[in-house]
Amino acid sequence: MKTWYDKDARNRVFKPGDKVLVFLPIPGHPLQARYFGPYEIESKISDVNYVVKTPGRRKEKRVCHVNMLKEYFDRSDRNFVKSVSTLANVNTLENCVESECNEETAEKNFAQSVRLKNSEILTNPEVKLGHLTVHQKEEVHQLMREYTTIFPDVPKKTNASHHDVIVGDASPIKQHPYRLNPIKLQYMRKEIQYMLENDIIEPSNSDWSSPCILVPKPDGTYRLCTDFRKVNSVTKTDSYPIPRIDDCIDKIGSAKFVSKFDLLKGYWQVPLTKRAREISAFATPDGLYQYKVMPFGMKNAPATFQRMIHSLLNHLEGCEAYIDDVIIYSDTWNDHLRIMRTFFDILAKANLTVNLAKSEFCRATVEYLGHKVGQGFVTPIMAKVEAISKFPIPTNKKEIMRFLGMAGFYRKFCPNFSSVVGPLTNLLQKRVNFAWTNDCDESFKKIKCVLMNSPVLSAPNFDKQFKLTVDASDVGIGAALFQENDDGVDRVVLNGGGYPPPQGYPPPQGYPQTQMLEEENQRMEEELSSKVKTLKELTINIGNEVREQNKFLGEMEEDYDKSGNILKASMSRLIAITKAGGPKLWCYMFLFILFVFFIIWVIVRFR
């Protein structure tokens, strides 16, 4: 029954002598409880009940259900925390909170110490330049020494832009702070102190107030974020466009040298206007503060930052920026140094700061926007592919959406992606009950298999012609974009496609249908629809060569290119077929004309 309601439930079995933590009431606070220990299992009474030794408490031994126990792992590294004894001798509320805080803060400090500061990397540049030759190292290191002002340990405030928040006539929004446990509260206080010392926030008397949350990061630390959802709902939208990820990746092409730069706390380098400062006010259990710089979570923050970085780097060739992630690419070493010098000079004049810990210098390939790029190839990042491969079998529609979202990010690496995931997408329909079938399982495994087999795409060269192959079926639309390399071999640039075209209106009842006309018309409609859909998606890439898998469709498209009208092209092609086929085909043409006029009538009638 437990596993029916909780899919993460697991059977736990202990044996005498095992060390466990026991969920017990806190002395002096009978309505509160936490895990104490470690204690030792003395004996097993049944599959779910154990006798546990609890020295130092009112009962020296007690019977505990397995749900009150969890396994205790002894730390082998004694330097990781201040004292191991604090984990064992827990008899009061003060001790338990202190020991848990010491343990957690030690873990956070350990995780934070892994990432080097800019000053440490400048002192030991070998960390970032170890892959270069001696001469190349010296040139890059010299360039870094010339522009040390863009490598401080704390982000500076730029003079190139500012962020404003326009809320119109909206009344101030006031929210109370969220409750936090003692561990997170201690971490929040340290973050608040850090931001006060570095001129990121200031005490506030604003009428506005938003709550704060601590979001866990992959390195084990927390990011202090403000919940601006209600403020964002009354904020006027900034429609400045964010670049497409595939556009940024395509421009790198076959570059031989690639460098990636991350701006240190990018948003915090953009100052706020006086009005925006008051609106950015946030509440904590210890008081009210407001930001002096652009915070994470504000509605128009990405647009403001993208506008600033675009205005600075728009005229710099060989450089692309996606918000605070900047990439420099070139075919020669001298060009790369020249572009890098210009880039550093622009940042220095704009008073912007680079995060060296997340930057890469002059590499053959780098990981950029979820892809590994360089040397004319594009591949998925294996860490993300492994996360997809380890995704458990979905148990509801929400988990299917999560999986399709993760896999769909790399859909261009999967031939006929829409057809393969068809059984999964069918489960997302409103009136379809969730039922995991063999087709769903096969589709689920096939997508994982394709991504795990290290798919590689060729970077597009826009000076060469592209070739597009399209096909369609009742399951989905498939398309592949090719380009010939220097060896004369066609390499895949990307895979595309979509779902099958919508079925047309049926012809009026009573009119005879011949099998030849029905099959030919359906094949023409599906393949032409797939081509039109794919051409719309890939207009920026393709040339004028499209491989046909349907001779009838190819001939019809010649007429379509001349006339610019699909119906007119189909009519002219049918007339040509009819002239060659005699009176019988004239009947087919007549029926098709009636069918076309019926479609037009339905569209006009129900528009």
Describe what you observe in this structure:
This is Reverse transcriptase domain-containing protein. The chain crosses the membrane at residues 585-604. Residues 515-577 form the T-SNARE coiled-coil homology domain. The chain is an alpha+beta fold and 607 residues long. The protein has four domains: 12-109, Roll (SH3 type barrels), CATH 2.30.30; 149-374, Roll (HIV Type 1 Reverse Transcriptase, Chain A, domain 1); 380-498, Alpha-Beta Plaits; 515-540 and 549-605, no CATH class. The protein is built from 21 helices and 22 strands. A hairpin with a 2-residue loop joins strand 16 (371-374) and strand 17. The protein is globular and about 85 Å long.
Task: Provide a compact summary of the structure.
With 607 residues, the protein is of the alpha+beta class. The longest helix has 23 residues, at 515-537.
Question: What topology does this entry show?
Answer:
Layout lengths: L1 H4 L13 E8 L2 E16 L4 E5 L7 E5 L3 E3 L13 H4 L4 H22 L3 H6 L2 H4 L4 H13 L35 H16 L3 E3 L6 E7 L5 E5 L2 H5 L11 H8 L4 E7 L10 H6 L2 E3 L2 E5 L9 H13 L5 E4 L2 E6 L2 H18 L3 E10 L2 E3 L2 E4 L2 E4 L1 H8 L7 H12 L8 H4 L1 H5 L11 H15 L4 E2 L7 E7 L4 E8 L5 E9 L16 H23 L7 E3 L3 H13 L2 H16 L1 H23 L2
Parallel strand pairs: 7-10, 19-22
Antiparallel strand pairs: 1-2, 1-5, 2-3, 3-4, 6-11, 7-8, 9-13, 9-14, 10-11, 12-13, 15-16, 16-17, 17-18, 19-20, 20-21
Helix pairs in contact: 3-7, 13-17, 19-20, 20-21
